[in-house]
Amino acid sequence: MKKNLVLTHKFLLTEPQPGLQVHASTVTTTCEGDPLVGWFVGPHEGHPSTTIAVKRGKNPPTFPCLNHTEAQWNPVLMRVEDQSLWLFYKQGNSIERWKTWVVVSHDDGRTWSEPRELVPADESGGRGPIRQSPIIKDRRWIAAGSVENWTAARWDCFVDISDDRGHTWQQHMIPLDHSVLDGAGCIQPTITPGREHAFVMLARSTQGHVFRSTSDDGCHWSPLIPTSLPNNNSGIAALADSQGTLWCAHNLSTSNWGARSTLAMSSSDDDGETWTTELIIEKHASGSTGRPRSVSEHGVITDGVGEYSYPAMLCVGNELWVTYSWQRQAIALARLSMETSPEA
Questions:
Q1: pLDDT tops 60 at residue 240
Q2: Are 44 and 52 in contact (CB under 8 A)?
Q3: Which of 144, 161, 241, 293 is most buried, most CB within 10 Å of its CB?
Q4: Which of 64, 21, 19, 16 is closest to 46 using CA atoms?
Q5: What is the DSSP code (8-state) at residue 232?
Q6: Does residue 1 register a pLDDT over 80?
Q7: Max Cα distance, the chain (Å)
Q8: Distance CA 12, CA 308 (A)
Q9: pTM for the complete prediction?
Q10: Nearest Cα to Cα of residue 253 among 290, 298, 281
């Protein structure tokens, strides 16, 4: 049977916020099955007042981590075994100096604990998850992370593993041959279960394509190598459905820091070795490309016009829910129905 994607719903979760930038969503569900979405909002990336927002269903956003003097970035929501919610996020005015913080909710995201540092005294640039909720397998938490050294122009991915429900973490770096690259490398990986391998990693890169690695235990990984999947050095989202098909939401440009004006969904039935573009989620109608004006260790500077980027994704029944940045003014939610039909 062949799976066909149908875009059934697409809407903004909040009204556009001119003058503020809204970016880097994360998505799960409430216990009632409504969308539970987080993002960061503020004047621009790296601004000290930029903070994390969380929205439950149709309720207005709340701000669980307001007591801070440094920029907040890249929230990641995670539902754990006891049904509590963890919210990981980065904090720091420059990417190289990020630290990962976490708050926990025991009432489905209505209230949150005081923030604590995920790995106390860490100076590596952030531990734990960077974009995607950790995978839980046999009580082990496996988080995909990355570090960005802008001074040396070297980016690398890692996994952080916790066997004690997030109290301590062991870091495992992902091999990458930097000698064959003409850019900084790979960051912001995602991890999915595989068919031939226990885990498949896909990562954003400076090389024009998504890179891939595999593992049979979560600790030891093959070297990251390029796939055919286009990447513009912007965030991706990936998951495996119940049949083992991999789905990846991504932009279509292959230029480093390239256009973010078209957001697509692609699929793979061979653990990410080959890909087919299935559907365009969003495409800007005019000539604006959503390409960043400038980039640095303090983040991206952009007006956001024409930008549809940084997807997060969740499988809910026979639907894929994709949240993404809508021109940096709001977070959009697209619902894609996975319908099956006989093979031709």
A1: yes
A2: no
A3: 144
A4: 21
A5: -
A6: no
A7: 58
A8: 12
A9: 0.96
A10: 290
Torsion of CA 257, 258, 259, 263, to 10 degrees: -80
**CA geometry: angle at 133 spanning 334 and 229, to 5°?**
60
Calculated CA dihedral for residues 272, 182, 304, 8, nearest 10 degrees: -10
Instruction: Count CB-CB contacts under 10 A for residue 90.
Output: 27
**The two three-digit tokens of residue 258, written as one number:** 């390239």
> What residues contact 42, with CB distance under 8 A and at least 6 apart?
20, 21, 49, 50, 51, 71
Contacts of 120 (CB under 8 A, 6+ apart): none
Structure tokens at 201: 């990693």
Phi, psi values for residue 218, rounded to 5° = 85, -15
User: Reduced to 3 states, what is the DSSP secondary structure of residue 71?
Assistant: coil
**307 has a pLDDT exceeding 90:** yes
Q: One-letter amino acid identity for 119?
A: V
Query: Are the CB atoms for 127 and 100 separated by under 8 Å?
Result: yes
Kindly tell me if the per-residue pLDDT of 2 is higher than 90: no
The answer to whether the CB of 337 falls within 8 A of the CB of 6 is yes
Amino acid letter for position 132: Q
Q: How many CB atoms lie within 10 A of CB 193?
A: 15
Which fold is adopted by the domain 2-341? Neuraminidase (2.120.10)
Q: What angle do CA 207, 312, 126 make, to 5 degrees?
A: 70
Q: What gap in Å lies between CA 245 and CA 170, rounded to an integer?
A: 29
H-helix or E-strand spanning residue 301: strand 299-301
pLDDT band at residue 343 under the 50/70/90 scheme: low
The contacts of residue 178 (CB under 8 Å, 6+ apart) are 154, 185
Instruction: Say what the alpha-carbon torsion angle 215, 90, 148, 121 is, to the nearest 10 degrees.
Output: -90
In whole angstroms, give the CA distance from residue 120 to residue 101.
9
